[in-house]
Design goal:
This protein is of the alpha+beta class. Helix content is 41%, strand content 24%. The protein contains 26 helices and 32 strands. The protein has a six-stranded antiparallel β-sheet with strand order 13-12-11-16-15-14, with helices on both faces. Strands 18, 19, 20, 21, 24 and 25 form a six-stranded mixed β-sheet that branches. A five-stranded antiparallel β-sheet has the order 2-1-5-4-3. β1 and β2 form a beta hairpin. α4 packs antiparallel against α6, α18 runs parallel beside α19 and α19 crosses α20. The chain is flat and about 140 Å long. 31% of the residues are buried.
Amino acid sequence: MARLQRLWTRSIGAVPPTSRSRRSAGGRRPGWIVRVRTDLAARSVAREFFVLQLVLVVLLVAAGVTAMLLQIRRDAMTDARHRTIAAAESFSHSPGLVAALTGPDPTATLQPLAEEARTASGVDAIIVYRQDGIILTHSDPNQIGKYVIGPYAEAATGTSFTKTFHGTLGPSVISAAPVKDSTGSVVAIVSAPVTVSRVQLSVSEQMPVFLGSAAGALALAAGGAWLVSRRLRRQTHGLGPAEMTRMYEHHDAVLHAVREGVLITDGGGRLLLANDEARRLLDLPADAVGRTVTELGLDARTVDLLLSDRVATDEVHRTADKLLALNKRSTTPFGGQRGSVVTLRDTTELRSLAGRAALARDRLTLLYDAGVQIGSTLDVVRTAEELAQTAVPRFADAATVELLDPVLTGEEPDGAATELRRAAVAGLGAGHPFYPAGELIQFRRGTPVAISVDQGRPVLVTDLATARGWQAQDPERGRRIVDAGYRSLAVVPLQARGVVLGLVDFWRTDDSPPFDEEDLSFATELAGRAAVAIDNARRYTREHKMAVTLQRSLMPHALPEQRSLETAFRYLPATAGVGGDWFDVIPLPGARVALVVGDVVGHGLHAAATMGRLRTAVHNFCALDLPPDDLLSHLDELVASIDARDGAGRSDSREITGATCLCMIYDAVSGEVTVATAGHLPPAVVLPDGTVDFIEAPVAPPLGLCAGVPIETVVLEVPDGSRLVLYTDGLVEDRHVDMDVSLEALRTALVGAGRSPEETCVAVMEALLPDKPTDDIALLVATTRRIDPADVAEWDVPREIEAVGPVRRACVRQLEEWGLEDIAYGSELILSELITNAVRYGKEPIHVRLLRDSSLVCEVSDGSSTSPHIRRAEATDEGGRGLFLVAQFADRWGTRYSPRGKTIWSVQSLEGKPDEEDLADAFLSQWDDDL
């Protein structure tokens, strides 16, 4: 310890704290005061020990006092509960209590007894109240006659209880006991409260004793801790923990942990200290410390530096096979003995490491740039070009990429092949001797390219001039490549998922060092990243090709011919791929046409397949002749069931919820348009004068989300020659433009009179088509054409069987006026059967209508919703053959429902006349099975 004290004095030039405390003992202050203040002020081990011990004592005393106080308070509350329940139950069972309750003045009888019991039991009150809650006794007379306040429902049921709540006396511990008569019925309740303040008062009375005890214990513990710390301070001479350990820690760190060599010499050149790193760098003997530097076997230049007084900074000295950078400083300016401190570090590998680090940094930067630049598109050829352009000139002087033909078309390579097509070149000037891009190359067996493709491993050709294997492919072309100055070649396969997709050739000229194994490893890493991007592009190409094929097979190739509408359309897929937009024009019976447009969210094969399913469903629902709102409701149920079925038990299923659809039916007889929409944008109507308006139909949620939400329709009449415009959101939706602005732009593009549907499509696409559509665009334009009233004939039929004949004959006369005598015979039979069925089984009103369009349509309507069904009549049946005849003479027939009933319709071609013999054979063939 005396040595530590002397070391303290030399290091800071001051007297240790113990010395200062001793000198101050003869001052004016008492010695013990000085010692205490010194102990508290000094940052020593003794002080830290004293503070820690004092904190522990304080915490223990505080914890003990707190625990005792909590225990006393709990005991007081428990005593209050026991006291109140005992008082309440005792008073409730006191003799004469029931008789007093039934007396003329219960309060006068019970109040003195209650006060006496309260005083004897030590509670704050004995409260008696009847079943109706009227207080009979109370310590506060003002409360007598009032309604009791508190949770006494349990006592009213005959059960005693104890609770704490805020009553008329304040927060209290209250116990209640029932008063029962001879029959066991509760006639009154007795409660005994003790206020919380009274309980707390009993606790407070004991506080001085506990606090005094705690203070005494704390004082004794503090005095003991001070005595112990005083003795510890004497033993450590007032040094703190840092001062006591710092000397040894720093000494050991310098000797063993520092990664630079450290030498300390005295003024005579004697070595005082050498750490482990210095011993390693200078190869010093084990007994080097204490010897002069001239005895250590160092080179003369280093010995001269160590013996001289000059300062050195990063002075390079050669020692054996090492280059050491030396720094030397004198210790004299810092108050120490005359001498010097020398630091050494090995710089032998610094230069080579710097070069390798720069190369590694450049390679990492190139790999990062390749990850950003390669695969920016999903085009196979473009990805190959990006690979070649990334490698040149930062890694190679030229690069060529060859791919298998199936990869270019999106197919999976079916095995190793040496026939590859050059997809990209980079770094080649005009007149280069290499195969051009796009050429199919058949590589010979044994060449580096064939080996790389067959075995899936990279091949390195260090010197093209002396290597003969690669020239076997084309000796003349190989000679020209060498003459052009190309020196080395690295062939690396493009391999993804274990499948070789092609290869990349890296070329270097005489101006660059030849490829080595490290370059080949880097080229493999670069090609591996590019191969993933090429494979992704290949798979996208395959899926896109499949989606396009599927979509083309599902979309309408041509719109059906019909006289009610003149139509034109446009469909453009998004640049990102095929989507789920579709449209349809579906002729319906009765000179009506359904115009449908829909949009399935998403792109790709799934969206195209979903579009086909929905389009097929729409055709099937239209075959049932459903109104637009019913059609969309059924379509919504179909989408919901598909989502539920396809998603059941599968976490990777893709739902189709989000599809939208708009259905519009145009009636060429009345000119009415009926529109219903499920989440789709409103259609536009261009009137004959060129003005434009949007049909604002009530919008329902998208398909699959309409459960419980009715789909409504809007009906309006449009003039003859109006244009109906249906479209998908890809035409007007732009994330940077508000939808109202886009719809106004569409309105502007549609304005104009006298345009044909085709001209309208051209005008709209020129005005609104974006440069790179991000979504599919479907546009359908139809010009309305009403049927000439002369081609429509109608009759109202009374519900009398005698009315069938006159109406039938009137229909035949109308057909003759139209020049349709060839089909009058069959039409007469059809009308006769349909009108007879309506008269016999239907309800009024009964209406007959004939329409002459591209075919003859016969319609019979009645007020009944019961639909007839075709059946095979038995030999003994008198009826049941009418609809069979209708089916034989009509091309098509069916039933259409309306809010007023139903309509049975049939369609006949205007050409051809049924042969009567054929008709008889068809009619009698239904009994052939019975013969």
